[in-house]
Amino acid sequence: MMAGDYTKANLADEPAWARNFYEANLGFKLNKKEELWLDAGLLPSHIGMESAIGKDNRTATRGIIADNSPYYEAGIRLSYQPSKQWYLALLTLTGWQSITVPKGQKGETWGLQVTYTPSSVISFNSSSCMGDVLAGTKNVKRIYSDVFTTITFNKTSVLTLGWDIGLEESAITPNKTNIWNGLTALYQQQIKPGKWSATLRYEKFMDKNNTIIQLPLSSAYKINLSHTSLNVDGGPVKGLLMRAEANYQSNTRPVFYKSNSLVKNQLSAFFICSCNFRYSK
Hints:
The protein is mostly beta strands. It has helices spanning 5-10, 64-67, and strands spanning 24-31, 35-44, 72-81, 86-93, 109-116, 122-135, 138-154, 157-169, 177-192, 196-207, 223-234, 240-251, 256-258, 261-263, 265-275. The chain has a 13-stranded antiparallel beta sheet with strand order 1-2-3-4-5-6-7-8-9-10-11-12-15, with no helix packed on it. It has a two-stranded antiparallel sheet with strand order 13-14. The longest helix has 6 residues, at 5-10. 23% of the residues are buried.
């Protein structure tokens, strides 16, 4: 269960009874000798490198790409892990980040995930989703792909590189496909392992048709956005996490609000202090 601003922003379109559920699912192991599982219910998204749980991410704020792709999904997942190196999953879902099937939506939504970890140094992940979404009152096809690799140089430094691309049938122009995509680079350096770390992030997000980021502005305002952040994390005692982040965003056209006018860039800073407790058995 959960509560807070995340539920208000990300689950606003869900029924009231569903907005406080973070995860709720049942899992069945189909083969005692093999890691073959069937899970059904509300699941964390198989797409993306970020989690809805802030402390599990290397940055204090979420990325633009993460905020415009699913954090959660509902449906059935069949997963198979034949070895420590490979993980495979096939999913049938209610839709694009939806607990219940949106009213008026037709067709199925399918997901696929493949993870390959040849060694403790490097891993590769490919996640994709295909199905119908509602564009106003019209059903259109959407295909989304998320690919990233994580390289662990040593015990103190980690680099993640990612590329996301989405294709969606235009609801206005026949035989036209709208495309958006984003690039991510995330580097973390442990200053004092287990206590202090610093993370540098860069994102490039392009959505020239305003397909996934819909602005209440003239069609001349296109999304061609750069996002850079630097944060320092500290955990002086177990269960306490302090995070400070400087965040800079810029776009080729003015899309950010400042003093009742539009500007091309914005700079912000955050300081977050949180206490956490996790129990597992």
